[in-house]
Design goal:
The chain is α/β, with parallel strands linked by helices and 365 residues long. It has a domain at 34-99 and 157-197 and 222-359: Deoxyhypusine synthase (Deoxyhypusine Synthase). The chain is 47% helix and 12% strand. Helix 1 (22-28) crosses helix 2, helix 3 (68-78) packs parallel to helix 15 and helix 10 (222-240) packs across helix 12.
Length: 365
């Protein structure tokens, strides 16, 4: 009678008293339907840490303007829970607004977009900020990427690591009032990948510099970028030892960019890869529209992205909004006795991982 991921248990929750913590509520009061999926996400996130998995997390959309970066992602990075992050350029760009002194407001999404445009107010659904926020942030990133250390070919984790170095320094100078994803990942050696780095305002500033400044030599090496993702996943199993988990928050390009490391290894490079061992997904997409965002662990298994045991025992697809679920999940995770660990610092092992994969590539026939 049990589902593939759980033992048989009676559905008989006790009345809520108001004294329960988040972890207790998730474990004992989320009994069915999407609530049960939420409970399963909580269990598998905890299991990922208890089993000392390398956790490859993905974050789509523009979640940082809503504060999800500071409130949820940064605390998990600080706790050593997230080992590698794949996200959008939008999340990294918008995450520094508050650090630069810009304010993001709650607004009425039905207030009238024509009037907002006349007033130079940018809207992200029910969030609003002045256009000067974008211009100030553009100036900030354009100033950084013109520095000498950026004038070379780089992959996105290398690029974001250097950006994070400067953002972390600014945070330290200001007393870290608004911790950023870039700053936290730099401090803890968490690589940040972006599968569509050109789809974001940080890159738009690079486009301008490439056209107007003949000394600007920064270019993104997308082929090596993909190779580094596969190399890290290969290194985590072979050199570090242990399992790999993927935590998917929102689907989109970050989801597939991380998952495709497994078929890259097995199908393209000829290097054995079993697929992710734990697959946690929180996404709003229905699963029958053929979109990648809604691809379940089982569907991913047919591509070699997840292991058979993962599909049977350690995967869950929770169809709900990340902004609803993640604060509760992070609160529960960090309340656990085994929720914190030393960061894996995969960024420090990036070159080693590339060299290992190079050595394991089969000879051309």
């Amino acid at each position: 009678m049990a589902g593939p991921n759980e033992d048989v248990r009676p559905v008989a929750p006790q009345p809520i008293t108001g004294a329960e913590g988040v972890s207790e509520l998730l474990a004992s009061r989320f009994s069915a339907f999407a609530g049960r999926g939420m409970r399963e996400v909580d269990r598998l996130m905890r299991k990922s840490i208890e089993d000392n998995c390398a956790v490859f997390a993905t974050l789509s959309g523009a979640m940082t303007p809503a504060g999800i970066g500071t409130s949820c992602i940064v605390p998990m990075i600080d706790a050593g829970a997230i080992s590698c992050l794949t996200t959008t350029g939008a999340n990294l760009y918008h995450d520094v607004h508050r650090l630069l002194g810009c304010v993001i407001h709650e607004i009425d999404p039905n207030a009238g977009d024509l009037a907002l445009r006349e007033d130079r107010v940018i809207r992200i659904y029910d969030l609003g900020f002045g256009e000067e926020t974008l211009l100030e942030t553009d100036r900030f990133f354009a100033h950084i990427v013109k520095r000498p250390e950026f004038q070379r070919s780089m992959t996105t984790p290398e690029f974001h690591h250097e950006l994070g170095r400067h953002v972390a320094a600014l945070e330290d100078e200001m007393g870290n009032p608004y911790p950023t994803v870039l700053g936290a990942c730099f401090r803890h050696g968490v690589p940040i990948f972006s599968g569509a780095v050109q789809d974001g305002s940080i890159f738009l500033n690079m486009v301008r510099l490439q056209r107007v400044d003949p000394t600007f030599a920064l270019r993104m090496d997308v082929g090596r970028d993909v190779y580094q993702m596969g190399a890290l996943q290969h290194w985590c199993r072979k050199a570090r030892g242990g399992d790999c988990a993927i935590w998917i928050f929102g689907g989109g390009v970050p989801k597939n960019y991380t998952l495709q490391g497994e078929p890259l290894l097995e199908q393209i490079l000829g290097v054995p890869a079993r697929g992710f061992d734990i697959d946690v997904q929180v996404c709003v997409d229905v699963v029958d529209n053929g979109a990648l965002s809604s691809c379940t662990a089982g569907e991913g298994h047919t591509w070699g992205k997840t292991s058979a045991e993962c599909v049977q025992k350690t995967s869950v697809y929770l169809r709900t909004d990340v902004s609803v679920a993640l604060p509760f999940l992070v609160a529960s995770l960090l309340a656990g006795p085994t929720s914190r660990r030393a960061p894996l610092r995969l960024m420090d092992h990036l070159a080693e991982a590339e060299a290992l994969l190079d050595a394991d590539l089969p000879a051309e026939s």
